[in-house]
Structure formats: C-alpha cells, structure tokens
Specification:
single chain, 322 residues, mainly alpha, Cytochrome Bc1 Complex, Chain C, two-stranded antiparallel sheet
Length: 322
C-alpha cells in the first residue's frame, strides 16, 4: 500500500506543477483589454495582443550589438541543468522505492550493457590492471607520457583555433588578430597552443636523450627506437609548418630561411625547396600547403606511429635501469 500512496502523491504533485506552470504561462500571454469610448457614449472593448518578446541572441545579431551575448546561453544552461537534476532525482527516488534495491549509476548500467554484448572487460582488464614496478614511477620515465599529454593539448587547442583561422594571405594575419582581441579567451588558447608546442619539443628531445643514455635502442627494441625518431621528426615538422600560419614578417622570413636550408641539401635540395614552397618563392600556395600538412597530414602520421610506439612498449615493456 505504501508504494501506491507514494505513486499517488507523485502524480498529484506532478499535476499541481503542470497546472501552476500552465496558469503562469496563461497569465503572461493573456491579451490586454482596452476600452475605447465612441461618440455616442458606448464603450467598445478592443483586445490588444501582447507584444512579442525579442530573442536576445537573434536581436543582438540583427542589430550588431554583441553586448551580453552570453546571457541567454547561461540562463538556458542554468535552468536546464536545474530541471534535469530535478527530473533525475524524481526518477531515482521512484526507482529505489519501486524496486527496493540500491541505485545503480547510469554510467555503470551503460558499461554493463555494452560489456554484456561485446565482452570488452576481457580485453581491457589485462591492460588496465597490469602492475607497474616502483622503479618505473620515477620522473624520467614519465617524459614520454608528458610528450603525449602535450600532444593532446595541442590537438584540443588547435581545433579551437581552427574555428576562426582563415588560411589565406589576405585574411590569415587578420584572423589571428581577431582571435587575440575579439574571441573570448582566444589569446589564452593561442598561448597555450604556442607554449605546449615548445614544451612538446623539449619533452620529446629529453625522452630521446633518456632512451639513448640508457641504451633502450638495443635489441630487441630497434623498431621502437625507429618509431621514436620518426615521432621526433614529426614534432619538429609540426613546429615548422605552424610557424608560417600567422603570416607576419617573422613567419614569412623564418619560413624563407628554413626552406632555403632544405634547398641546400645535396642532390635533392632543389626538389625539396620546390616541394615545400610549391614553387620557387613563398606564395599563397605555400600557406595552403603548410596549413594542410599541419592539420591533416602530420597528425595522421603522428597518430599512426604513436600507436605503433605504444603497442611495442606495451609488448616489450620498459627496459630495466643499467
């Protein structure tokens, strides 16, 4: 009987909430009645519909007034989250009352549902529960992990910058200035991208030095060393291609010097120079090629070799100290 009473109370409470909400909406949207006196003394009641409310976001865009642009979004997020929490609390209480069992979190239910069908726990358990010796927890064994973390930061901030960057000579520098001065936290995101790129180069170099000093390149880890060298080259290529994207004087002349260094390579120097510049001089095609390499080609190559690198480290383990 208690469950029946609880169900009745929940239904009554929900009906009261719906009725109060409907009454408030009706009172807010009710038309105003205005009396108009005619010449013969009679009164004509005229119904005046309420003035439609202006959408703040649309109105700001229409009038090009970008003040308080985030207010409607914050309002929707705040009250929407409060409503979702309320509904979740009601659903959770009703489930516990009806089933008389402990509440199982929704993520746990989703994972159990997926694992029941695909048995992923059998595959992930040996990976997640592999013991780590104490000597592998020293800071110099974390340099590779720090490099990977900075690569993730680079990817996230790079995607955020790509929303506003325009890879054309006429608009590249202007888009950078727009990110710096107009976009919310745009300058901070660009600085995080800049300094994490420098940090990634430093961490990758330090990781390579640690591996070389400890002799980890020796058999049977030769291919692991080769993939690491490729990843270091990709890291340097990321820095080189990204340096031209602001399209200012420093970027232009730094790229000019860098491509001329590549052009001084014996035998294939001219081919390398023309390939990098898409011609004999730096033009808009050079900017497009560097941008495509920076956001498409280099990330694909890096992710591929990074996966191979991690698989070999996982299979062969970390070499014990000398």
């Amino acid at each position: 009987m208690k469950n029946v009473y609880r169900t009745i109370l929940i239904v009554i409470g929900s009906l009261i909430l719906v009725l109060v909400t409907a009454a408030g909406v009706h009172a807010y949207t009710t038309s105003n009645q205005v009396g108009i006196n005619t010449q013969d003394g009679s009164v004509i009641v005229q119904i005046v519909p309420p003035e439609p409310e202006k959408d703040t976001c649309i109105q700001c865009h229409a009038e090009e007034a970008f003040t308080n642009l985030w207010t409607p979004l914050v309002r929707w997020i705040l009250f929407g989250a409060a409503g979702l929490f309320l509904l979740f609390g009601v659903a959770r209480s009703a489930s516990v009352w009806s089933s008389k069992t402990e509440w199982v979190p929704i993520p746990t239910r989703i994972l159990a549902w997926i694992d029941e069908r695909y048995e992923l726990s059998d595959f992930l358990k040996p990976i997640l529960e592999k013991p780590v010796p104490d000597w592998q927890r020293r800071w110099w064994y974390c340099l590779g992990g720090l490099t990977f973390f900075l690569f993730i930061v680079q990817g996230i901030t790079g995607i955020m910058l790509a929303f506003y960057y325009k890879p054309t000579p006429a608009e590249a520098y202007a888009s950078i200035q727009f990110i710096e001065n107009e976009v919310l936290l745009g300058s901070a995101v660009r600085m995080i991208h800049h300094w994490s790129a420098n940090g990634m180069i430093v961490m990758a170099t330090a990781h390579m030095l640690r591996v070389f000093i400890m002799g980890v390149y020796k058999p049977p880890r030769e291919l692991n060393w080769v993939t690491g060298v490729v990843l270091l080259a990709m890291t340097l290529a990321f820095g080189f291609t990204g340096y031209l994207l602001p399209w200012d004087q420093r970027a232009y002349w730094a790229t000019t010097v860098g491509t001329e260094i590549a052009g001084s390579i014996p035998v294939i120097g001219d081919l390398a120079l023309v390939f990098l510049r898409t011609g004999w001089s730096i033009t808009s095609l050079t900017l497009s090629r560097f941008f495509a390499a920076h956001i498409l080609i280099l990330p694909l190559i890096t992710i591929t070799f990074m996966g191979l690198h991690f698989i070999m480290v996982r299979k062969q383990g970390i070499m014990k100290p000398l």
